[in-house]
Design brief:
Nucleoside Triphosphate Pyrophosphohydrolase; 10 strands; globular
Amino acid sequence: MGYIEDLRKIVGNQPLILVGVAVAVMNASGEILLQKRMDGVWGVPGGFIELGESTEEAGRREVLEETGIEVGKLDLVGVFSGKKNFVKLPNGDEFYPVTIAYITKEIKGGILNADGKETTEVKFFKVNKLPDRLNPLIRNLIIQYSLS
């Protein structure tokens, strides 16, 4: 069981502040790696950090777990937080995420493959031909930071 699950046993559904990462992986052709989550919405790999883990370690771990790709150096894009990011899950859990966003162009290896647990499909997209069901926050970040 992970840190968040253990914490939820103590605090129940009360709002928490949770720190996570999002990683934009760019290939040599300037395409961005997106993953289709179980809800059918596309986004970038990412997730919450575990106890004792750096945000960079969490980013690399999440990319590998969710997409099968091993990445190297991560460059900071920005930190995103605040009321507008509040999440209430169907089970009643509430949280305010603090998301540290990175970009990397350093793909070290691995085989592109959806994990089947959180991700149903993984694919590189041209930044001007993104899928329709893309997380709006991710679409705005791609446009704002011109990740091409």
